[in-house]
Design goal:
With 387 residues, the protein is mainly beta. Helix content is 4%, strand content 49%.
């Protein structure tokens, strides 16, 4: 597999970027949602870039912008997008028609992510994350609790809600202890994977929860001490975390979770899981199952497999790797030079690769000359000899 440079979204003396967990590419693989702002990261514009013409359109001005999370933008079909604003200290979400600028729907909570079909949206109070970890908020000043809801964003229909009390009971978290959802990613069919941060007996912990929102069931699927980043594939979940080693130090590892013995059904082009295949398992420390490797970074789905980045190495490069799920083999795709002016500061920017099936485009978020920009690469197949 080769990465061929295709386009760059940049502008002098402005930061142009997408949020850490945004999916900026449109279904057609041509248009890209991104944030453009000046140095302060408190307000800016949500824009759409056309990779064919090299031009952009401004959608809205907003003061709900985070260096990490951007504006939590998502595509809903090809004609509308989710954007966020700050109203009276709270974050609100809006479904915007990109042609007419008309607001089709609006909600009191943040729409953190939308599924790959542009159908379901996951809503929860992003303020909670921002209060506990300010760099991951969108500038909100108030705390608003509550659970997680899934809505059909096309017609504003409430599909299901997971109450905060349900999360507390599942995690063994007391009513006066902190608990909030930090990240969310849709899986296949009716799965929503939640990264939940909480306090249990004065110990800060993180767990991954799989919520089958159409069935009304939820369960904890990770047992490691800390989960940081993850991506959900068709038959695997690649997630990163740490667990205590024998000397009680935390050791960073990547883990590949799989669903063993699973029969897969294909219907209308979507991969669906047999309802009997509900068991998850994690690599054991003796190496008897799945895989683990010491590289750490951020994953994205690439077909049936994954592409992930790494943090800056000793040579000053961040790297992109390709992981083949079937062979459990991974190899280097590209070295990308880091920016020495910012990598030692809180404005460090990781690559956060995002892959789009349409056009086989991989986008990364990087810093050049102290300002963030978006690079797009065409992903081309190659032979083993080319690796």
């Amino acid at each position: 597999m080769l990465l061929v440079e295709s386009f760059r979204i940049s502008q002098k003396n402005r930061h142009n970027f997408f949020g850490y967990y945004d999916r900026p590419q449109s279904i057609d693989g041509i248009r890209y949602l991104y944030i453009s702002c000046e140095d302060e990261f408190c307000s800016g514009q949500v824009r759409i870039y056309n990779s064919v013409t090299g031009e952009y359109d401004v959608l809205i001005e907003t003061d709900a912008i985070s260096f990490q999370l951007g504006n939590l933008n998502s595509w809903v079909g090809t004609k509308s997008v989710i954007v966020h604003k700050k109203v009276d200290g709270f974050i609100t979400s809006h479904l915007l028609d990109i042609d007419t600028q008309e607001i089709l729907h609006e909600w009191d909570n943040a729409c953190y992510t939308v599924d790959s079909l542009g159908r379901y949206g996951a809503f929860f109070a992003i303020e909670n994350s921002g209060v506990s970890r300010p760099a991951y908020g969108l500038g909100a000043t108030e705390w608003r609790g509550g659970g997680v809801s899934v809505r059909d964003v096309r017609n504003d229909q409430l599909i299901a809600k997971l109450q905060e009390s349900d999360l507390r009971r599942m995690l063994g978290c007391k009513s006066d202890e902190e608990v909030y959802v930090e990240h969310a990613i849709f899986g296949f069919q009716d799965e929503l994977y939640l990264l939940v941060r909480y306090v249990n007996n004065d110990v800060k912990l993180e767990r991954m929860v799989c919520w089958r929102f159409l069935l009304g069931s939820a369960k904890v699927i990770s047992d490691i001490a800390k989960v940081t980043h993850y991506a959900v594939g068709s038959d695997a979940i690649l997630f990163f975390g740490s667990r205590a080693s024998l000397n009680k130090n935390l050791k960073l590892k990547r883990f590949l979770k799989r669903l063993p013995g699973v029969d897969w059904l294909r219907s209308s082009g979507a991969i669906r899981r047999n309802v009997l295949q509900e068991k998850y398992w994690l690599k054991s420390e003796d190496g008897t199952s799945a895989i683990a490797f010491s590289l750490d970074g951020h994953p994205t789905i690439c077909g049936e497999n994954f592409i992930f980045d790494t943090y800056e190495n000793d040579e000053g490069f961040r790297q992109l790797y390709y992981l083949d799920v079937s062979t459990k083999d991974f190899y280097l795709l590209k070295n990308i030079e880091s920016d020495p002016e910012t990598d030692s500061t809180s404005r460090r920017c990781d690559l956060h690769p995002r892959f789009s099936k349409a056009g086989n485009v991989l986008t990364v978020d990087r810093i050049i000359g102290g300002y963030r920009c978006v690079d797009g690469f065409i992903v081309k197949e190659n032979t083993l000899e080319d690796r």
